[in-house]
């Protein structure tokens, strides 16, 4: 049995960490560290299965497996540099659940290998509500030995499904995460545009919803309902903040540019996410691109 630590108690990080502590087969409590220490202290107070520490070095040195779930590439790079500088990482397994550029994942894997540690890229598919119910999917890319070490903490513990990319470069998981989200964000863009056109031409939202439910059931139907509900301009803590979409679009645009691919749909999504980020701030909902598309079509931002 492995001892396990968790670095990064943000919106999704905290939820997944709680499930790990509650359902995971770890030896002893999960050791947690967060940049804002109070969040770790507060979480510690909720469960005997969680212990807060005050430094990355303590989190790393007290466990065999160290999970990270941090906001962006710079924070991830910083955390690994601190771990390598302040403690001995040899023999440790680092599992990175953050969404990062494939080049960032590859650089961390290479750096850790130099110091005798292993790296698994493990991005998360699905938002906070799915994470609460352990219904998220994760991808795992890295050596099969490292995947076997982390497998007891995956299906039924923190997630429903794992897409295993055994003995494949860690970049593969990051690429899948980014391309998967390109599909998700583009679907939302199309639903927003279809909804605006329907309103302008006098086709009721109810009729459009019926079509989507019958012919393209699944997440799209739920997303259309969310647009109708006006949650995109009412909710203060959105499930997908626009800042997250801006980060991922930047990574996707970089990938497209470096590989000579023209992604016109991504251009459109990026235009709208950048506008929302500029006009409504980084904590606005990704769904607020609906309001932006409405404004571009002569409708008020709010529906
Ligand atoms: N939320 C989702 O629905 C979702 C879904 C799939 C994947 N993801 C990915 O999962 C990761 C975490 O998402 P989240 O929703 O938990 O993000 P979040 O709520 O924004 O939290 C970000 C976390 O990163 C920490 N952090 C930020 N800058 C840091 C730095 N310079 N050094 C150390 N720690 C730093 C924050 O610490 P403080 O508490 O001190 O600010 C916090 O723990 C992201 O990469 C995101 O893209 C999120």
From TrEMBL:
Pfam families, A to Z: NAD_binding_2
Active site: 177
Key words of the record: Oxidoreductase
Domain 6-phosphogluconate dehydrogenase NADP-binding intervals: 3-153
Gene3D superfamilies for the chain: N-(1-d-carboxylethyl)-l-norvaline Dehydrogenase, domain 2, NAD(P)-binding Rossmann-like Domain
One MF annotation (Gene Ontology) recorded for this entry: NADP binding
Similarity remark: Belongs to the HIBADH-related family. NP60 subfamily.
PANTHER family xrefs: 6-PHOSPHOGLUCONATE DEHYDROGENASE NADP-BINDING DOMAIN-CONTAINING PROTEIN-RELATED (PTHR43580:SF8), OXIDOREDUCTASE GLYR1-RELATED (PTHR43580)
Protein name: Putative oxidoreductase GLYR1
